[in-house]
Amino acid sequence: MKRDVLASLSDEKLVVYVREKDKEAYSEVVRRYGDKLWRYVQYMIRDGDLAAEIVQRAMVKGYENLNSFDVRRKFSSWIYRIAHNETISEMRGRKKILYWPLDADLWGVFESREQSPEDKLDDKLMKEWLDSCMAELSEKYRAVLVLYYLEEKSYEEISEILRISMGTVGTRLSRGKALVKKLCKRNNGER
Q: How much is the pLDDT for 98?
């Protein structure tokens, strides 16, 4: 099947096609989800190279377990869950990483077309300050915040990915935001 036809299929139809007819078409799944999963994993572990390794492992596991996927569910939640599990396994085996570098996607609000050198310095300092606040946030809150705000997942999708109730998603989102605010105030010398 041609790439443009594969690209037009829903995730679930693509999975059925891969399972029944063409294992090579899994490359379309990798094309659709590789960068998204990398971004999610990178935000969780704060290491781009390691994130790429984890995503590769997740994609291989997804391929190997494709027959266990229930096409009545959302494929994106299923593949994110695999990547999440791989990430958590990796995090458990390592020391806590103290720095959380964020990319330009998150910081777009700070950028304007014309900035003076002073504005650029202020933005850089603001990013570093927020990075230090986020570095202190635990995985359970960081995962929900990243999935909701950066990956634009719904409560239902986050619930499926993290295997927590939708109520817990809302609670962690609310508490996570409050913790970020508290950490940022503390790191700024406020009470």
A: 37
Distance CA 140, CA 169 (A): 10
* DSSP-assigned states of every residue in 100-168: ----HHHHGGG--SS--HHHHHHHHHHHHHHHHHHHTS-HHHHHHHIIIIIS---HHHHHHHHT--HHH
At CA 97, angle to CA 94 and CA 102, rounded to 5?
Answer: 135
Residue 98 class from Cβ within 10 Å (0-12 exposed, 13-18 middle, 19+ buried)?
Answer: exposed
Q: With cut-offs at 50, 70 and 90, classify the pLDDT of residue 174.
A: very high
In the chain the domains, ranked by start, together with CATH numbers, are 1-95 (1.10.1740.10), 98-191 (1.10.10.10)
Please give the pLDDT value at position 139.
87
Q: State the pTM of this model.
A: 0.72
| 3-state helix vs strand vs coil in the chain, percent to 5 | 75, 0, 25
| Three-state DSSP class for residue 80 | helix
Checking if the pLDDT of 1 tops 70, the result is: no
Cα 12 to Cα 69, 71, 132, 135, distances in angstroms: 9, 6, 39, 36
For the chain, what is the mean pLDDT?
A: 82
